[in-house]
Structure formats: structure tokens, C-alpha cells
Amino acid sequence: MDGRILANIGVLAAVVESGSFARAAQTLGITASGVSRAVSRLEAGVGVRLLDRTTRAVALTEEGRRLYEQINPLVAGIGEAIDSASGASVAVKGRLRVNADAFFARLILAPHVGRFLQAHPELTLDLATREQLGDLVSEGFDVAIRFGEPPSSSLVSRKLLDTRSLTVAAPSYVRKHGAPATPADLARHACIQMRSPMTGQPLAWSYRKNGRTTQAHTSGQLHLSDGWTMLGACLAGAGIARFKASGVRELIRKGELVELLPDYVGDRYALYALYPSRHLPAAKVRAFIEFVVGILDDPAG
Prior knowledge:
Elements: H1 3-18, H2 21-28, H3 32-46, E1 51-53, E2 58-60, H4 62-86, E3 94-100, H5 102-109, H6 113-119, E4 123-129, H7 136-139, E5 143-147, E6 156-169, H8 171-177, E7 193-194, E8 205-209, E9 212-216, E10 223-224, H9 227-235, E11 241-244, H10 245-254, E12 258-260, E13 265-266, E14 268-275, H11 283-297
Parallel strand pairs: 3-4, 3-5, 7-10
Antiparallel strand pairs: 1-2, 5-14, 6-11, 6-12, 6-14, 8-9, 8-13
């Protein structure tokens, strides 16, 4: 590869990551006009405009976004390889941007995150809770932690946990509407519909018993994308809902929720770590993933 093209690609990456020509210039130690010329040369070589420029901001064009999604893991891999050769890849420092759903962030990560930061004093954790996965590369995330099967993409996925789901309702709902005896009975109940954080579509409800799988037909007036809102609505008697077992066991023990269909095994939910680069993931990404694994493996929670 022509070294000039690689250098220009590096400049483009710096502009995207910093959000402006001026900040990219500061990062790279060159002038803002030098950054602009490098991007223009890259655009001329590719034959399309890669950045939309205004007096206030720069943004990738559609063609630029596609190119950046493909080249960014490669550029990052080169940098990580150099760091690895120099021994710097073992240093957990800098800024770590994590994309997570609110359920994981609040229930699993929040009680332990202080311990992670204490172990890595040179690291800054930027944790964003999102309803949808979004685009990790273009939004600048290092890693995402998500329940559900990962989408087909160039992202690397690592399964961290596999947990069963429980079907529950508030005692007030059961007193008023009764309890379903089989998954087929759910069709006559108000079922709170949860959208997948990966696809945005309502999650299907299926059950297993004696080696047979049954697909339940559910419907309801309430459609949500946030697990904590769903939990609040369920506790208030708005309908039947399904939750990851780890999130509702204590509420069932206290009598605030009633487990339904206990003879049927609900769907299992997998927790995945997703990150862009297949080769040499940064030390901060490896450290965070291993920390999450440690939390999940700890029986004390």
C-alpha cells in the first residue's frame, strides 16, 4: 500500500474520532490546513466526497461512513500491533467508551464499577446506556455489552453469560385476571411487549416442556424498549412480562411478583460483548470484558 494513502486514512480517522479538523490537527501535531489537504487527497484518490464540511462541524457522508467502517478496524489493528511490539498494549489507560443496555448497566455493572476504576486509575470510563445497539464504529464505542443474539455484522462477539427467563406478574394482576396454566393461555392475557435491543422488534415468547418447544402468541397494549420501565409497569399490575431470572428472583421471593408457568422453561438470553476489531483488542477492552466475566462468575454477585 502507498504510504501516503495510509497516512491520509490515518488523518481521516483522526478527524472522525475528534469531530473537527482543528482537534485532529492538535492530535496529529500538524496544521489544520494540512489535515484538510490530506483528506482532500484521500477523497481525490477514492473518487467520492468522504466528509461534509460546514463552518461548525464535519460529518461523514454515506460513502465516507461505509469506507470508515471498513478501514477503522484495520487502522486500529495497525496501531495496536505497534503498541503490542512496544509493550504498551498491556497498559490499561485512556478513555474506554462502553455501549450497554440500562438493565445490564444498573443491575450488574453499577454495583461493581467503582472496583474496576480503582484497579485502573489511568482509565476513564464513558458508559452510555442505549435502547438500540447503534453503530459502534461510527459512534466511537470501544465495546458493547448486550443481551440477545448479535446482529450479522463485522463486529466480533463473545458470549459472556446464558441465563433463563421467567414469566411473572404482580399479585394484583393475578387476583384480577387469573394465572395462565399453559403458554396458549397467554393469548387471553395482557402481555407487556419488549422490543429487542438488537433489532427493535418485539421479542417472541417460546417455552419448552418434555423436549417440545411451544411458541406463545402474545399481545398487549404496552410496548417498551426499557427493562426498568417494564419492571415498574409489571409491578403495578399492567400485565404479564418476562424477565431475565437474575433480575426478578428477589422480587419473587418477597412476594412482589408471582412466577407464572413454572412447569415450562422460558427462552434463554445470552449476554454478549461486541467490539469492532478482531485482531489485538486493546488492553482496556480486554480488561473490561474480563472484569464483567468476573462479576458474572461471582456467586455473591
